[in-house]
Protein 1
Amino acid sequence: MEIVIVPSPEDGGRIAADIVCGAIEKGARTLGLATGSSPLHTYRELIKRHRESGVSFAAMSAYLLDEYVGLTPDQPQSYAHTIRTELVDHLDIDNARVFSPDGGAADPSEAARRYDAAIVDNGPIDVQILGIGLNGHIGFNEPSSSLTSRTRVKTLTERTRADNARFFADPADVPHHVITQGLGTISDAKHLVLIAEGARKAPAVRAAIEGPVSAFCPASVLQLHPHVTVVVDEAATGELQ
Ligand code: F6R
């Protein structure tokens, strides 16, 4: 595992964008995308490089990590909608090749199985961008998730619902369920890039990097992966030994 400590989140975005662009140059065709605050500097940097340096995503496909059950891509809080407005609409990637779990499916568990199969069939994902939750989740694999889990429906903890309430008009609107790639699914990607910023993330970063590999800290599964880059700002390293 490579740990890159950067002075600021903006520097972290540049490092993660270097990784993505370097992989594209070497022939990468599939990106894994996280939503939330952590990857925003990376996405802004990718948009900048597309506009100013002509980096092209035209040959790429992308798979989102997760989606809220009950939200469809036309709803602004859905992750499919969020990733379009924050990234996809500003690149030359074909929107039809940006895939997300079907949060509006009548049978979410079946939708999860289909999504996992699509990733297996079209993967492996070359570079998977990840954020980390305060409780150590990646994707929405909350603590106690099996380290070998596949894409499935999960119930959000109240802590995660509270953390994500900032994206909803009313905290009560945060869905209780999500479809998330499993830890096994995420681990199939060739290169995992975890981005963490801010002192709030320091305990989770420590548990993920220095703690035991355990379902109680889902991000600790990264310790088992052969190619991981953790990009952290100084604040997020505050609890490392
Ligand atoms: C979202 C996802 C989550 C977030 C995590 C951190 O697609 O996979 O694991 O990365 O909840 O969220 P932020 O970055 O908003 O702190």
Protein 2
Amino acid sequence: AERHSIVVIGGGAAGLSVASQLLLKLGTTADVAIVEPSEWHYYQPGWTLVGGGIMKAEETRKKMSSFMPKGATWIKAAVSAIDPDQNSLSLADGRQVGYDFLVVAPGLQIDFCCVKGLKEAVGHDGVSSIYDYEHCQATWEDVRAFKGGTAVFTQPKSGIKCGGAPQKIMWLAEDYWSRAAVRKDVTVKFCTGLGSMFAVPKYREALERLVRERGVDASFGHELVEVDGARKVATFEKADGSRVSLEYDLLHVVPRMGAPAFIKASPLACKATGFVEVDKQSLQHVAYPNVFACGDVASTPNSKTAAAVTAQAPVVVHNLIRQMEGKRGKAQYDGYASCPILTRRGELLLAEFKYGGVLAETFHAPPLLDQGKPQALFYYMKTIVFPFAYWNFMLHGRWFGTRTFFEPRYTE
Ligand code: FAD
Ligand code: UQ1
């Protein structure tokens, strides 16, 4: 069977970052393989911009082949099972691949099926989602065509990637309707299974102020359980088990999501959550020291974002190389994540925090910018700097987010 020194599962933000950084450190003769079935690589943070009419869907994807790092072997297939006791993977096409070291980075699986009627409804008759390449353009078509009525935006209580995106698209839509002078005829509802607008108090307060100022009708503890696309009715379940139904004219849904099925079924998964059970600082598997996880699939209690990947990838790379030398690496991930919350066209609130919701703001020192306030500079970072840095540096192993210029590299 085929065998490689290092195998990376997934060629997404995390898989390509780690593979590129490994090849930069070890040289292009290192034996690194990436298992990735997709023809395309998606810049998912752009999907919010597509839904808001700021970017085109085609700009958010590029051919996977142009991002496979030089020296890496691309195994163009999906992993269907992992056997960490045999250091071996099964592929969907029946092949087996062996490894000495494994980096698990297949991201999350989006489940449109958990909510009754959603799979049938999404993509037409005013129902859309920025959580899917195929449906994010429909969000903008719906928002642009809307002339009045009830617009409902949902968020599930279970963990999602980019926890701020469900409200970002609402703020962009609300702003568009204000500019188009139809806002007075629109009722904007935000229905979330969670208990507040954001987990970190500083940003929560700022966002709850915006809810009041901009006349958003927010309902907490409201979990979407059913969509009747024909009658345009969305049904929510409350914590006490009771149900409420709402008639909508426009519905933006955020589906539930979780670890991919083949991860949940593997010995690498945390039994309770299904995510790959790694140490939250070293990102090394708790039972298999030759296995690491990076990105959304890791069990680490951070906010799942590409920004978090910029901080995780160098930790995985350092600790993996030390492990290859038979030593324990000392690099530690501090839980850094950032959520750039678009509050309207031209304005963005840049939330940055680490484990425990402790602030980790890049621009905090006076007289720099107040990150508790939406700022124009952050908007241009999100719409211009981040996409450019992602495609041209991050996927090539040369972008470390806020630490790109300031943070010393791990040397020991
Ligand atoms: P992904 O990038 O999803 O990549 C996973 C890869 O694994 C894919 O290429 C997939 O094809 C592959 N794969 C899947 N299954 C298998 C398999 N069985 N075998 C092999 N390969 C497989 N982050 C931010 O930092 N800022 C933002 O503003 C932001 N906004 C977002 C808005 C939206 C609407 C969404 C959806 C996400 C947003 N994110 C944002 C989050 C960000 O996109 C993710 O956190 C990031 O892509 C995670 O990287 P990853 O490599 O773990 O997963
Ligand atoms: C970031 O580095 C990054 O990567 C390109 C993003 O794009 C997805 C981000 O959204 C954020 C917030 C960062 C963090 C970087 C800085 C400079 C705050």
